[in-house]
Design goal:
8-stranded antiparallel beta barrel, disordered N terminus
Length: 196
């Protein structure tokens, strides 16, 4: 999406329109743009346009979930481990992933998107307070098998006191290879710990 396209999106919004109307127009325009590129662009961990036809699995119900394991008094220790995560945007679930949060404050993710589009991405994380962590996550975007863009996902999560779940909000920003910002998508994550 070019700056001209973004400018044209806003051309139908009047100065007197409320912020809700302006946001609705913008969200609709971004959604329409994503549908237009869905045929050729596959964004590794950030493939927000893939949907069920691109490999969206049914919810996993047979994973061994951790129960009654001793946990710590802080999110930094509680988040370390393996998780099953469900991602949503605009109330629509679009992906599931396995994520490992490591004690050295790195993390990696394997998402249920096509391998040819790239389904492994990685990042780093830091504690914010006793119940929250934040991660900074990167991945490549492929078009016809060639790297065409990249994304950066920032996410803030609240880790449960028992250390067996977390949920949070994220923003996935898409960039051209030269670093030009293209657009961003807001979403949520909801995770359940997988037992060791």
């Amino acid at each position: 999406m070019t700056r001209e396209t973004l400018g044209n999106i806003g051309s139908g919004v009047r100065n007197g329109d409320s912020p809700t109307v302006i946001r609705s127009v913008y969200v609709a325009a971004v959604a329409a743009s994503l549908m237009l590129v869905s045929v050729t662009v596959h964004a590794s961990c950030a493939d927000l346009v893939g949907g069920p036809s691109q490999g969206m699995a049914h919810p996993l119900t047979n994973l061994s979930q951790a129960q009654n394991e001793p946990r710590y008094d802080n999110a930094a220790d509680n988040v370390v481990g393996t998780w099953h995560v469900t991602y949503s945007s605009g109330g629509v679930e679009y992906a599931q992933a396995f994520i490992q949060w490591h004690s050295d404050r790195t993390e990696w993710e394997n998402i249920n998107k096509p391998v040819l589009g790239g389904n492994i991405c990685m990042g780093s994380w830091k504690p914010i307070d006793a119940t929250h962590v934040s991660r900074n996550h990167y991945g490549w975007i492929f078009s016809s098998g060639v790297v065409s863009n990249y994304f950066n996902e920032t996410e803030t999560d609240e880790v449960s006191r028992d250390g067996n779940s977390y949920q949070g909000t994220n923003v996935t920003s898409i960039y051209a290879l030269d670093g030009t910002f293209l657009f961003a998508i807001e979403g949520t994550a909801k995770a359940t710990r997988i037992a060791p």
